[in-house]
Write a structure and sequence with these properties.
2 domains; globular; 5 helices; 208 residues; 24% helix; Rossmann fold; 14% strand; 7-stranded parallel β-sheet; single chain; alpha/beta
Length: 208
């Protein structure tokens, strides 16, 4: 089945004279899980770019401990009903009752979606997912809202460090650089993400 509601990603350039964008960030912070770790990295990047961030915690059975002062400050702000909300979490945990515009930012690395995920996605105004393959899966599963491919990106300093440390199958001593004893930077699945943003924000799962 050919998907027709998959949109291309288009990075937005924010000029210095524009007012701060208010964003309610619904997610999980302060937990040792993938969504929480990557969510904090994305939130800190948004804050560094002048976004007025407000935190709406996703209910979860484990209490989170928010350590970064900037994230604690965002968590202390009351969510505004007129602000854009980004729900960065599992789709079945989206907060769908926000009165303002709602974006669901999620991913599921399988070739189908649970019905609860499809229903939650269709209760949002648009859906973001990191890859084109995933966008097609969401559309073919019945998500009818606009789907935007929004790559996660990489933290370049982390990528450079991990590229020197990760030994891939088939590596040999001859594939390593003799310059200071460090390995050459290897290409892994997150390398193509660098093409999407000069100011890449976070590391992909394989380099965590």
């Amino acid at each position: 089945m050919k998907s027709t509601n998959v949109a291309n990603s288009a990075p937005t350039v924010r000029h210095h004279h524009t007012p701060a964008l208010p964003v309610v960030w619904q997610s999980r912070w302060g937990l040792p899980i993938g969504y929480a770790v990557s969510s904090e990295a994305l939130a800190l990047e948004l804050l560094s770019r002048g976004v007025e961030l407000m935190y709406r915690p996703t209910p979860w059975h484990m209490p989170g401990v928010i350590r970064h002062p900037a994230l604690r400050a965002a968590a202390a702000r009351a969510p505004r009903d007129d602000a854009l909300q980004v729900s960065y979490d599992q789709a079945d945990l989206f907060f769908t009752n926000h009165p303002g515009y709602k974006i669901g930012y999620t991913m599921l690395e399988v070739d189908g979606l649970p019905r609860e995920w499809v229903a939650a996605c269709n209760a949002m105004d648009e859906i973001w997912t990191p890859g084109h393959w995933g966008a097609t899966v969401f559309a073919d599963a019945g998500v009818t809202r606009p789907i935007v491919v929004m790559p996660l990106g990489t933290i370049r300093r982390v990528f450079a460090l991990m590229a020197r440390r990760i030994a891939l199958p088939g590596d040999s001593p001859s594939s390593r650089s003799s310059n200071g004893g460090s390995a050459k930077r290897r290409r892994c699945c997150c390398a193509p993400m660098q093409q999407h943003s000069r100011d890449a924000m976070m590391c992909c799962w394989c380099c965590a």
